Amino acid sequence: MTRYSEPKYRTILEAEKGELEALKAQSANDEWKPSFHIHPQYGLLNDPNGLAWFKGKYHVFYQWYPYGAYHGMKHWAHVSSEDLAHFDRHDTAITPVEDYESHGAYSGASLQVRDELYLYYTGNVKYDAEARDAHQCLAIMNENGEIRKYEHNPLIKSVPAGYTGHVRDPKVFEKDGQYYMLLGAQRENQTGAIIVYQSPDALNWSFLGELSVEIDLEGYMWECPDYFEVDGKDFLIFSPQGIEPDGENYHNVFNTIYVAGTLNLNELSFTVDEYHELDKGFDFYAPQSFDADGKRLLYGWAGVGEVKFPTDQNNWAHCLTLPRELVRKGNRLLQRPAESLELLKGAPVTEGELSPGSANIKLGSVKAWRATFAAEQAADLKLELFSSENERFTIIYDHKAKKVVTDRSDMAHVTEAQYGTKREVTLTEELSHMDIIVDHSIAEVFINGGAAVFTCRVFPLSEDKQMNVSTDAELNYEVHQMKRGI
Ligand code: FRU
């Protein structure tokens, strides 16, 4: 069959002379570029991929299209870190030059096998704008960080009967001496599912079937499955496409949920105890977790779908979330900013105690900062971030309703307004703690030690800023600058 062709299906190796340098220069001084969130130097970033703690380093790969702020030929970009705070950029890890990946090296996860890191990914092949096929592939990174494609790729050719060409995003893990691969899939009847393969050696795979997940959510495609155990409990994460808003949940174009339950690989079932939306913000999708030193860490894409951002004009888009540590609380996951972020703690802006009343914390031109608020007694609280005469991003806690609302309708640049400009969550416990981490164009808001998290992209005007706080409570607060990490 002939392959689909469009200018955006071009690898980085096909750049014209000076083209990449020009892209890099164009976005270099963009004031909305984060200083410690992983972001592309130029082009578009989406999902985190292949996350690993391997041979004394953290490795983060991500989906990357080099030529602009839109989705095109996807590569795997690569950064690494010794401390999960300061990152170095590396050469492109996977460039889709082979026939089996002619329209992109799509998402996947990694697994250490003996002394090498296996990077599983999906080779995407398009025949026309709609028709596609998917091959599951492998690239291997050795101890020296050299990456090669497996010579017998693809590991899994095409898709099993009963599914469309939308089968992707391998998550591989070992259990009881066998390897398993979960894949996001679309059934021929246009509904979403997770399918399972098994292998004795992480190279030769056989199709087991579909994972039964008894959940009243369907959608037309389930992307980016992830499975892990925290503290004796199984968790499944996936990103279903095509589900409707429901109360405070699922207001973004695409959404991500986590399920607490029990995985039974003999019966191919995931028994569901509870499920919840993972992040309550505007910009969060396709997260992936990994294990490092006994801790379960997670990165998400701080973005979703095909949005228009003010950074598009400089030909770059999106960043990852911060690394979060997942802690189990019953059937819930708490998401805490990784401890490594303490390494980026910079000069104090201010700290103090606030009696019921209000304060204006001057941030001036400081664009990377972290603020924590702790209240002994619950009370109403209102924060205005990036505040000036011209705009503000509001966070309100309504003590009676136990509800937190984030609102970006008063920002000068409002993105994705068609999906609403507020996100809210009703807490199970009174607000006692808020941790806000801001990096130029992203704010991550952690409530009560990660019981609820809002990931929000914001594009503040370039002008002096302050944070306005008003509360009925006694509050302790601390604000400090954050240092550069990438
Ligand atoms: C999720 C996703 C994945 C796919 C990748 C392509 O955002 O659509 O399912 O592998 O992005 O970039």
Automatic annotation (TrEMBL):
It catalyses: Hydrolysis of terminal non-reducing beta-D-fructofuranoside residues in beta-D-fructofuranosides. GO terms for molecular function: beta-fructofuranosidase activity. Residues 37-337 form the Glycosyl hydrolase family 32 N-terminal domain. Its EC number is 3.2.1.26. InterPro entries: ConA-like_dom_sf (IPR013320), GH32_Enzymes (IPR051214), Glyco_hydro_32 (IPR001362), Glyco_hydro_32_AS (IPR018053), Glyco_hydro_32_C (IPR013189), Glyco_hydro_32_N (IPR013148), Glyco_hydro_beta-prop_sf (IPR023296), Suc6P_hydrolase (IPR006232). PROSITE patterns: GLYCOSYL_HYDROL_F32. Residues 367-472 form the Glycosyl hydrolase family 32 C-terminal domain. It holds the Pfam family Glyco_hydro_32C. GO terms for cellular component: cytoplasm. The keyword Hydrolase applies. One of its GO terms (biological process) is sucrose metabolic process. Pathway: Glycan biosynthesis; sucrose metabolism. It comes from the Bacteria. Belongs to the glycosyl hydrolase 32 family. Enables the bacterium to metabolize sucrose as a sole carbon source. This is Sucrose-6-phosphate hydrolase. It comes from Jeotgalibacillus malaysiensis. The lineage of its organism: Bacteria, Bacillati, Bacillota, Bacilli, Bacillales.
